[in-house]
Amino acid sequence: MGHSKAFRKDPERHPLKTPSGKFELFSHHVHGFGYDDCPGFAKWIEPAEWLGSKLAERYPIHLLSNKAATRLHSQLDYATVSQRSKIEGLEPILINPVDAKRRGLKTGMRVKVFNERGATHAATLVPDDVMPGVAILSSGA
Q1: Exposure pattern of 105-115 as b/e (b: 16+ CB <10 Å)?
Q2: pTM, to two decimals
Q3: For domain 54-137, is the CATH number 2.40.30.10?
Q4: Do residues 84 and 28 touch, judged by C-beta distance below 8 A?
């Protein structure tokens, strides 16, 4: 019998690996750390950057950085496989057609991607399967 099944059948004899041996909705241990961003219970903590934040008024596109299929992080970015995925030597950034149209962008255009922490250059790809308000730029280029 699996541990969770045994616990459900007899929680006293088969406690969970928590301080109380039961499901814990509040952790005194975690609460004891005193962190503002990690209370002892499940709580919504608004991220600094997301599409619903005040900052999104200034930076309305939320950037996702996925793992590249053509390299490991920045390793082997110079290799043929990675270079073939580039557009005129730049990493492609995927952007929704509606967002691209609002900005006068078409596939293959050079763009500056930036926020208050930094900037990079990329080349646009405009597929139909990117959520509006989101852009995707692989990490490591």
Answers
A1: beeebebebee
A2: 0.73
A3: no
A4: no
